[in-house]
Amino acid sequence: MNRLKSWLLRKKFFYVLMGWKYYLGNNFIARFPNEWVRAFYLRRILKVSLGRDTHVSMRWFVTGYPVRAHVSIGDNCVINREVYLDGRTGVVIGNNVNVSFQTCILSLHHDHNDPSFPAIGGVVTIQDHAWIGARATILPGVTVGEGAVIAAGAVVTRNVEPYTVVGGVPARRIGERNRDVQYLTKFSPFFDTDIFDETAG
Predict the structure, then answer these.
(1) pLDDT by residue (tens digit) across 68-95?
(2) What is the pTM of this model?
(3) Catalytic residues
(4) What does the chain look like in DSSP terms, one character per residue?
(5) CATH of 2-176, one of 2.160.10.10, 3.30.1120.10, 2.140.10.10, 3.40.1550.10
């Protein structure tokens, strides 16, 4: 009995400790004005994979399972302020992806038709050169194709074909994007602003 009690106490302490690291990250580190510190915390503490020349703005919110957040972000990406990254099942973001402010990317939710309301989900994949507009919501298991554009405020419930533009609730095809994508995203503003040195690099 004492051994069981000891195991339960250790287990509870483990979850409290793991919860604390997310709380500290989302409420304090995410508001710290130095980008190097924020990136260090994401990489080393939350175990988020961040590519080269990728910028994660202040006031992000990352969630995940106790040991790590299953979030991978490629090179030359911009994750703007107040983006919610749900790393419980997983978020995989390719290279040169722009995610605008207050975007919500969910990899886990509940089955409202099941009497026991179980958690269900799937990895969200956002492929290279995609642009996610402000306040868009992407639901679990969705793949956003290469070069696709998600309009501001859209709710994406199913896969988006490469180089298509979708918008609305639920999101539907509203256009097509030029496939000649040549730019590389390089955006690293000062503090919690959109002010940056456009001549750098």
Answers:
(1) 899 999 999 999 999 999 999 999 999 9
(2) 0.91
(3) 110
(4) -HHHHHHHHHHHHHHHHHHHHHHHHHHTGGG-S-HHHHHHIIIIIS--EE-TT-EE-SS-EEEE-SS---EEE-SS-EE-TT-EEEETT-EEE-SS-EE-TT-EE-SEEE-TTSTT--EEE--EEE-TT-EE-TT-EE-TT-EEPTT-EE-TT-EE-S-B-TTEEEETTTTEEEEE--S----------STTSS---TT--
(5) 2.160.10.10
